[in-house]
Each structure stands twice: as C-alpha cells, then as structure tokens.
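Q: Joint fold for the lines below.
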Amino acid sequence: MHNTRYTLIFTLVLTIVSATILSLLFFGTKDRADLAAKIFEKRAILSSVGTLLDKDVSQMTDQEVLDIFKNQVEQEAVDAQGNVVESAKITQSGYNGGLPEDIEMAKERKKPEDQRIYPVYIFSANGEKVYILSVRGNGLWDEIWGNVAVKSDFNTIVGASFDHKGETPGLGAEIKDNPAFSARFRGKELYDNQGQYTSVAVVKGGVKDPDHQVDGISGATITSNGVTEMLYRGLKEYEPFFNKEKG
Amino acid sequence: MDFINVFIKSAFIENLVLAYFLGMCSYLAVSKSIKTAFGLGLAVIFVLGITMPINWVINEKILGENGIFHTDLTFLRFILFIAVIASMVQLVELVIEKFSPALYTSLGIFLPLITVNCAILGGSLFMVSREYNFTQSVAFGLGGGFGWFLAIVAIAAIREKMRYSNVPAPLRGLGMAFILTGLMGIAFMSLMGIDPAALAGK
Amino acid sequence: MAEATVKEVVQEKEPLFGKKEKKLLTDPLNDNNPITVQVLGICSALAVTSLVYPSIVMAIAVTLVVAFSNLFTSLLRTYIPKQVRMIVQLVIIATLVTVVELILKAFNYAIWKQLSVFIGLIITNCIVMGRLEAFAMANKPWRSFLDGIGNGLGYGGILVIISIIRELFGKGTLFAGSPAALNIIGPSNEINKYWINTASSSGFGHWVGSWYFNNNLMVLSTASLFIIGGIIWIHRTYNKKLVDIS
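A: Joint structure:
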C-alpha cells in the first residue's frame, strides 16, 4: 500500500516529466506551426483571386504560395480614415510582427471603429492591380470571415473566399466547402449606377438585381444573412481607403 | 441579458448531446432507466457548472499571454483542464458520500464516469474557442449541463416505453437507442430558428 | 466504460506473437468492437465523419494514443498509487493527445483546423480510458500495446465505413481534401481530374450534366447515428451472440 507522501511525489514527478516533454515539443514545433498557419491564411487570400492564377490554389505547394506572395502581392495596412499606416502603428496595435498580414480581424472587431486597422493585399497580374480586402462577421453558430478581391475601380468584384469557425457542415459550411458559392460573387458590383454604396447581398429564392445579389444556400438562411451583413459592413469600413485611392 | 442569452442557446439550440453529440458514451450507457438518468444528469449539471468558471480562470489568468506568467502556455491546457475536472469529480464524490450516503449508493458508480464524459471537457474547450467572458462561461456551464440533463432524461423515458414495442431482435437496445437519438437530434434542429437575442429582450 | 469493464487478464508465458496476441488484434474488429459492442468513443465517431480523409487521420491519432497510453500505463501499473489512479491515467492520455495535436498543427495545419476541438476530445474518448482500466492496468506492456492497436483499428474501421457512406451520399465525393492521388470521385468540370465526376458536363454521366444531387441528411452529424444503428443491426444479424435480450 502506498502512503500519501509517495502519492504526492509520484504525481509531482509525472506532471513535471510530461510538462517538460510537452514544452520541448511545443517550442520545437512552434515556428513550423506558425508558418503553417500563415500559409493557410495566404492560401485563403489567394483563392479569392483564383481566376487570375494559372493553378488551383489547393493544388499548389506551400512554396508556390509563398513565392506568389513574395513576387506578386504587396501588402498595406489602412486605418479607419483610409490612410496607409506604418509598420510601427501595426506593432503599436498589438501585432509584434509589424506586417499587415499579422493583423487579426477578430481582434480588430472588438476595438472601437475609429481605432481599427485593416489589411489590404494588392495582387498584380498582367499589369493589372487587384485589391484583396478582409471582412469578418457572424454566422449561425460562430464567426465567419472572408477575403474579397476588387478591381482597381474599387467597384467590380474579381472573386471572394470564405471561411468559418463552426457552421453546420453541408449547410452554412458550404460558404467555404462549395466553390460554386464564392464563384457567384465574380463580376458583382459594390456601387449602383448612381454611385451609391450598395454592397452585394446573399438572397433567398431568386436574384432580382444581378449586379448586387447572389443566390443563397438553401437551408442556411442565417449564415447567408451573416455573409450579407459582413460584406456590407466590412467593405464599407474600407470606403475611406477607396475614396483616397480614387483621389 | 448575456447570461440568459447564452443559457438558452447552450441548453436548447446548441444542446451538447443533440447538436454536438458530446457525452454520448454515458448518455447511451446510463439511459436505461429514468431514475439513474436523472441522478447522472444532476451530477453533470453540477460538475459542468463548477468546472467551467474554474477552467475559464485557469485559461485566462494562468495560460494566456496576459496571465501571471506572461507566456503562451496553452499547450498545457488539456492537462490542466482534465486535472480540474478529475479533481472536481473526486470532490463531488467525497461530498456526496459524506452528506448523502443514499444518493451516493445510487449514483456512486456513475460519478467517475463523468470525468470521461466528453461533454465536460468539450464544454471547456468550446468555451475557449468561442472566447466567452466569465459571466458567459458560467451561463454556458449551467445551460450546457441543463441541456444534457434534459436529453438524457428524455431518452431514458423513451427507452423505458420502447421495451413494450416490437423491435427486430438485432436492433433491440443499443441499435434502437442510436436511431432514437438521431430522431431526437433532428427534432432539436427545429429549435435553431430561435433567436436568443430576441428572447433576452434585445 | 459501459457494458464491458470486466477485467480481462491474459495468462503469462506465451510466445511474443502467438494465438492470444493475434486475438487481441482481431477481437475488437468483430466480437468486441469498441463502437458497436462496447459503446465507447461515440462522440468523435459522429462529429468528424462527414469526410473520409479527416476520419482516417482521426482513426490514426486515436490508435496511436490508445496504443501508447496502454503501453505507458502498463509499464507504470505497479507504481501507480490507487487513490490517484484516474488522474495519473488522464495525465498520460492528455500528454499523448497534446503531442498528437502539436505534431498535426505543425505538419498538417488544414486537417488540424478541420478537426479542431475533436483532437482534444480524444482525451475523453472513452475507448482510451476504458482500455486502460479494463486491460492495461492488469496486463503486461506488449499485450497492452497490441490491445490498444486492435481497439484503435476496430474504432477506425467503423469510422471509415461511416465516413465513406456520408461523404459519398452527402457530397458526391470521396477523399475530398486529401492528396491528389486519392481523388477518385469528386465534383468538377475538368475532365480527368477525377475518375468519376459527380458534377461534370463530361466524363462519366456527362449526358445529364451535373447528375448527382447531394443528400443533405447525410452531411449532418445525425446521419451517423442512423448509420451506426444500421451497422449494429447488420452486425447483430450475423453475430447472434451479441443480440440484446433485455
């Protein structure tokens, strides 16, 4: 029979041994895991301009993704007033990397609107520039987010990609899993003929305004409405930047 | 308002058993009679209600970058969470044994089962991934526990009735329990239409 | 931890891989299947099986965790103090699960993201605890290890069967998201991308255009409950001794 002291020592030794193993492994794999997370994000960003790439993003190797980012993508961070901000400001906002790609939209959403900063990825292909913007909102269960690519007229959408934390597979999760959904956004416009900001809405039961509406996912009304709201609000937050760029 | 909101959401709309299918092992094993199901359900509410706030404090104040060590210790999350759960279950066991030996004898064997009930650890992990604050995590613990309680009592009642039905022999017992749970899950999906914000009067 | 927590003690002094060892591996595949007979580890079987590829990853992860926690527990079984038995077992399991998680996060981030909390839930996967209690605490390391592998495979087998049914009928694909070599069936308009294209205007079935309509019930977790119910039905029809007489 074991006494109390033995029990305590045994538990202590076991805990220390396992904590040591785990911390060694954690710090050993940290760089690789961080890189993997970055590449995952970059794949999502690139898939919004999927039509301009020679190859399907999911078929690319990690190196190819990084190369495209290095050679064809410029990144900027803009504040709520539409000004491009310096690296120092990004660090000051709580991102140690200091790069626009380090900005986490989840954290920005919690800040007051006038203090937020947003990433902009400028993708160049065939001498044309495409601006990729990040948006984030709420779906049915949890957060949803996406990247929307617009032409340099800041009106025509080139493509979009979406992701989610926990939407229902087969229903809400289709925003990510079904490439046909994000493809519906291609060629849609953010402004109407009078130049009024209208964004793009996901609608149920038939598109009436083909420039500003796309078909929703059957059975996932709340997620579809979440996408509509996310796009309307998220892209409006970039409006000062659009206006500055357009001059 | 936030409290009611999260409570309703976790008890009905995102029921741990019927929407996420967590805690299935004990749910299927202990649902043969209403009496034991009732006892286990109560114990789950209790353990979930206690461990959720404790794990919230551990996650925020010890493991996070803003905690007392100022380093990212999240890789210790699983170990600490499960240790808290195991010790809470042991504590509950001791308390019940001291104060209500009758309840202890009827519940006794099921208490250790709660430690390995995925609903408890799953609840804590969901709390982390959904970034709940303290009030919300208390509500989530109680609501999630209540939802689990409801589900197990409901299936136990159905299974008691099922004994008088003419089910094909190979499907009797376990097989039928699976199919019943599936049907209940579909029924619970209809609760998705509830807007908790509207209920909480926002 | 349900109906089968009876301690199974295997007699000592046997060859390294004899009849009894073989039985340890094959028993959980049929007579003592963790999911359909012992009712262990249902949670993850329901949640991660909407696609085949993550299910396979999950099955491998669980097999490794069960096998190694069985091994370590068995090695330590005479030293573990009775009072804290459960916590010690959980610490061993939690450590192994964290190891699996860290490795997945570093080497296959997309899968890690898809499995999210369900990796953590391997800790409370009753198969692991159930096997530690019922087998590893009373048997030698090598046999415990084999028992772990056997139970992991029995669990993985069911997982893969469920996920094949769910993915095929729910999405019209197989092995979606896995390395390209396994793209057998999938929705695509490109010829030759898959052997069978369920949404194609060319290749097999092209004459009806996009010829497969997804069955949305199969995509929901609920579907796996019905499928397991069905598997139990078939299993017990052919294996009469498992029929529930109560």
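Q: Anything notable?
A: The helical segments of chain A are 4-47, 62-72, 87-92, 105-109, 174-177, 179-183, 221-236, 239-246. The beta strands of chain A are 73-79, 84-85, 117-125, 128-138, 143-151, 157-164, 201-203, 213-215.
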